[in-house]
Amino acid sequence: MNFTAVSQCIFIIHFYEMQAKKRYIILIATCIILLYGFYTVLNFKSELVQRSRRDQLPTFASFEDLSEAPSLLQRQPRSTSKPCRMETCFDFTKCGDDPKIYVYPTEGPVSASYRKVLSVIRESRYATRDPNEACLYIPAVDTLDADPLSPEHVPDVASRLSRLPYWKNGRNHLIFNLYAGTWPDYAENALGFDPGDAILARASASETVFREGFDISLPLFHKEHPEKGGQPPSATANTFPAPRKHLLAFKGKRYVHGIGSETRNSLWHLHDGNNLILVTTCRHGKSWKDLRDERCDEDNREYDKFDYEQLLSNSTFCLVARGRRLGSYRFLEALAAGCVPVLLSNGWRLPFDERIDWRRAVIWADERLLLQVPELVRSVSPERVLALRQQTQLLWEQYFSSIEKIVFTTIEIILERISAHRTSRQREALIWNASPGALGTLVCYGDSRAHLPLGVAAPPAPRAPQAPPSPLPAPSVPLTAPPPTSSGTYTALLYVQATSPALHKLLANIANSEFCEKIVLVWDSERAAPSLKSLSRVAGDTREPLPVLVIDATTHYPGEGVSARWKPLWAVPTAAVFSLDGDAPLLAEELDFAFKVWQNFPERIVGYPARSHFWDEAKGAWGYSSKWGGAYSMVLPGAALVHRATLALYEASAPALRHAVRRARNCEDILLNCLVAHLTRRPPLKLAQRRRYKAAHHRYKSPWSDPEHFVQRQSCLNTFATAWGYMPLMRSVLRLDPILFKDPVSTLRKKYRKMELVAS
Amino acid sequence: MAAETLLKSNKQIKYTSYRNILYHRFFVGLLLFIVLSLVFTVLFNVFTGSSPRTDFHEPVNLDPSSVPVLQLRRDLPKSQSRLSNCTYWECFNVYRCGRGGHDKITIYIYPLKDYQTENRRPISQFSKEFYIILDTIRHSKYYTPNPEEACILVPSIDTLNQNSFSSEYVGRALQALQYWNNGENHLIFNMLPGKAPNYDSVVTLNTGKAIIAGGGFDTWSFRYGFDVSIPVYSHIAEKIESSQPKQKNYMIISTQLNIPQNYLEQLQNIASSSNDLLLLDQCKSESSGIDYTKRCEYTTGRIFNYPEIMKEGMFCLVIRSARLTQAVLMDILASQCIPIVVADSVVMPFNSHVDWNKLSLSLPEDNVKNLLKIVHSVSNERRGELYWQLRWAYDRYFASIEKITLTTLEIINENLFPLAARMYEDWNMPEHLYGPVNPLFLPVTAAKAPGFTAVILTYDRVDSLFALVRKLVRTPSLAKILVVWNNQRKQPPPSSEWPVTNKPLKIIRTKENKLSNRFFPYDEIDTECQLTIDDDIIMLTPDELEFGFDVWREFPDRIVGFPSRLHVWDNTTNSWRYHSEWTNQISMVLTGAAFHHKIWSWYYTHKMPAEIRRWVDDNFNCEDIAMNFLVANVTRKPPIKVTPRKKFKCPECTNTEMLSADARHMSQRSACVDRFAKIYGHMALKPVEFRADPLQYRETSSGIPHVYPDIGAL
């Protein structure tokens, strides 16, 4: 009894408890729902009201406003003349398809730096000796240093410029200037002459004086900056995260008086001796001791503790603070050392910023927010640091490491403007900011990245709907056909000096190849060219006969000799060009395998015959060797695949190099190897085991067996190294074989069976 | 027993009633608290309503129906005229910014007021577009209701169309703004600048130091790095759908109504001699008004519907007229017709960030006569690139007033906080067309001197591990060995038992037995290159490892490894399959023995789709397939296999006795390949037919000693 009562009690309590809990929960829940509902309705209502009000509002412009035509009223004349732009101050009519540059003959004093600038242009492919043919003029008057206090200053520039025969107020002239203004205010406009309509390529330009899209901003470079070549990137290690010792470094002068002193004077606040190394000295000029302030001694002590070069290579970020002028040498120095520049130079137009995207390589700080700089650099993610540092190296190598590169970049920017004006075509922004860069890409070659050997091509954009076939009369000027894209086929470009059984065998093998689209046969022999239109396939092959185009080099390109072998690019319909000597004993299988590999490396030379170079201590010169040990550095285009754009670039290489080849009637293959290595910074790729790439039994005496020939190639190599200012060739220790090459499996499993039988 | 129960239930009663009371009290307390706080708030509001607190700011009310009227007298001071050489460094006060964090600007909108002249006429017309601009800012992440902490201030006076406001009075109204300070840090929106007859390329208004987000700038009026060029909005464009005809029927179409006479004549000449240009004009109808939804061909008078006709064109012309930029440009972009812009010295909308070379052709004004020649010279590939770029860019930056406003704010934000800026690729390279950006883009052969770090993932196979360590240290370029001890239940053997090595060896104990631990970017890895190797791969010779490292040095952005696999498409099941037989192709190298750059470990841990990492850890499988997918997807390059096939004790066959388990393992790996391909949206792996061998591999020695003699013995 007792027990039941108790249990009943429990039950009731349970029930009560349940109810109480529920009641409160329900009460609160209802409240919340009600409130929520109330507010949503309210919101919704107000939104409805708002939307209807919004729709009642008038639109900002009627159709009439939007399609306002120029009024018939007279425009009121403007009082101020506007600064120059290409459209207003440049005469495009003088520039043809291949714009040329005329350099005036040197008269009067010229500084060493400017002499280098002039000689680089004179030796370039842009130069012409005929002033009437030229589109751009470069005065031989030294305008680099406009500071009258400088020993390099050349007086009397203004009158000498105006006396130039084609000056015409500077129209179509290009003027280089590194230093403008003088102590104490370093005014940017104090050039000592009036540039007029001339394009001004100047260092330390500020946003306010810069004529947008007309002037070109230059980097400030030392007198010792190499004319050619230049030091290769020094910080190519992509260690992640960056392991450098210091985070931010600066070592430089500080000005106790005069312009440019504010920022540098406060740097010591940030110096912590370990992570942030910001040391300054007052020692400069003659009178620093008289003007020194109370911090000078302490600063100098800290300053002497650190070595400038060491700081650059041990620090992740380098402060590039303005000096007397906006730009400073340390910008290029930091770039070269792979130290990411942190700019403290408000209003400075960075070098070539018209085309170079500096966001990828530098950090902008603000002089007004100096004390935030440490926080700023700390907040850069390691991944960004990796990208920034790589970009500093890329840009340094491509555009800044020599005077030649700086000058060529300036010229290419102007030529690109001309091209944009004449043909509405310019290089893509990414080409400028990635490898191989604008100096390694012709502005007139192609208008899409699909035309270029850009390492990895972007996935093909789906075809735009086809334009209707044009029934109109053909355009008056023949259009340059757009270059072909990398697709599934190649063109065999043969260079033949004589018929031989080897040639017939090679032609038969090419006809057997799966991917060959066309043969272009460059015939360079006194004998009459064979009349070959197509090659029939072997029995059982159902494909159409292979088209052949025979080009007689002796009539088309007289006197060119071996340089003619890559001239007929107009006849090549594919991006892949298999450059072959007429007697190369390649099998069809080898042709196909080479092409398959090349598709993965379109920017490199991919082929069979390898050679190597070495430094000959005894002679103090470069040596050339056809016997390799464990490494090679050249793959001869006697049997190798090359991208068509690369061959086009070969045709546009420096005149001196091409003359050397033409004179020697030799070495075109070495030049091509040097060129590709120079552009891509990668070695070529050798395939499989084949060593011999000349048929063994020749009826006539081959020039290859001639020792003279070998000596000549040796001297070519040295000529090229001098012309580039360094040895561009790179070594590789690997070759690429088919996957199952010489593996102990049944040959039936193997795709490339016959290749294994080729004797090395 | 009963007593026991009783005792228990008694306890229970006590307990439950106690709980009950607790509940009761809690809820009553809560109720009281809510009621009290409500009452308190109401009272507080009632009593303090008259004097609003200064540190609390109401968001701006954008309801244009109930705004206070403010009459401007003629004698009020006018604002100063626009400073034409302003730069960000000189005219912008940075000290106002940075309060919203170091990567975000803050924007304040002035309260709406109905400004009127003395004759009670409104000084500007408040338009729908301007309302949306303000509303977008109001709801954007940049908005702040507090003028004191604002970095940018936006006057709420509509200045979009020069024709619908009075410059004189708006100048006075600006000057009267509380924080105007000669326009410092103010942002003025304008789309149609200038009036007849001069049509200035910048709004005719005394704006002092204010930033102008304007349409129709030319290179002289635009202050680089300071102003923002915006498009002229077109309400027609917003209604154009993204659908496209299969075939474009016209090469070039011109639909613009206000083409200046001299260009019109040139175009008429072209149109009369060629079918490639469809030149359209307004229809000459009897009724006085112009029908803006129709266009008629110049010569024949054929009628076309506007804007539908533009979708039929491959290229569409937009020519400067009274103003430099035209609203029709937006219609053209939305129709996915490639614009040909004829306007010398124009500053294109958002030119600082949007690359118009990827969106349009620009034709100099004195080259209009060569229009056909230039259009014909555009290659098919470029057409494709432009065509696919158009709609993508339009949808991202131009599709509505909201997007235009947000893009403007973002550009200002990036100018102020360059570190937060997105890169060129993010702005201009749609990832679905061009793929991701390779983090290792510098073309170099990696240096040999730093060597590589071997990362050994091990559980408890100590004997095999020690054998491997002994073998590894004989590789010249090995810099360090890192043993990742994945067994939480067992201690690694004490240091005395480890083999004596001349290279540093470090043991890392993991918290959890996960396969992904082998790809963690440990700080201890201080070389670029890491060799991931299983603790049972003891068949590789030092020569082979050294050569593998040399191959990696030449391809530092790829995975370079020894055992390889292939993916194949299975037609019967319509899925990807994993293949481990002797094949002529490879598309993966197994990370049981592979070199790769450390950054890929970082990518694996931080950037790979989380779904894949979870799958790997849940199934204890496929981490190597995931790595191959990851690298191939980012670089679009296949891996490199080194030297011939060895008898690897392959990871797939750990359990050779149990064939069924083996089969299950293989099918799981097939499932991985298929699944990962789906997650990435495409098959990222690429098959290749080559491997890397030493130059002298299998060559009869010709007196020159081999560099890597001990390679390839099975």
TrEMBL record, chain A:
Q: What segment(s) does the record annotate as region Disordered?
A: 456-481
InterPro entries cross-referenced by the UniProt entry: Exostosin (IPR004263), Exostosin_GT47 (IPR040911), GT64_dom (IPR015338), Nucleotide-diphossugar_trans (IPR029044)
The keyword Ubl conjugation is annotated on this UniProt entry:
no
Q: In which pathway does it act?
A: Protein modification; protein glycosylation
Q: Give the UniProt subcellular location, in the record's own words.
A: Endoplasmic reticulum membrane
| Domain named Glycosyl transferase: residues | 490-741
**Source organism's superkingdom?**
Eukaryota
Which ranges does the record mark as transmembrane? Answer: 24-42
What is the membrane topology noted in the UniProt record heading this document? Single-pass type II membrane protein
Asked if the record carries the keyword Transmembrane helix, the reply is yes
Residues covered by the Exostosin GT47 domain: 100-380
Instruction: Give the UniProt keywords, A-Z.
Output: Disulfide bond, Endoplasmic reticulum, Glycoprotein, Glycosyltransferase, Membrane, Signal-anchor, Transferase, Transmembrane, Transmembrane helix
Principal localisation: endoplasmic reticulum
- This one is known as Exostosin GT47 domain-containing protein
From TrEMBL, chain B:
| Family that this chain belongs to | Belongs to the glycosyltransferase 47 family.
Per the record, membrane topology reads: Single-pass type II membrane protein
Cellular compartments annotated:
Endoplasmic reticulum membrane
Annotated Glycosyl transferase domain ranges read 452-697
Fetch the PANTHER family from UniProt.
Answer: ACETYLGLUCOSAMINYLTRANSFERASE (PTHR48261), EXOSTOSIN GLYCOSYLTRANSFERASE 2 (PTHR48261:SF5)
Q: Where is the Exostosin GT47 domain?
A: 104-377
Record keywords: Disulfide bond, Endoplasmic reticulum, Membrane, Transferase, Transmembrane, Transmembrane helix
- Its protein name is Exostosin-2
InterPro entries per UniProt? Exostosin, Exostosin_GT47, GT64_dom, Nucleotide-diphossugar_trans
Q: Which stretches are transmembrane?
A: 21-47
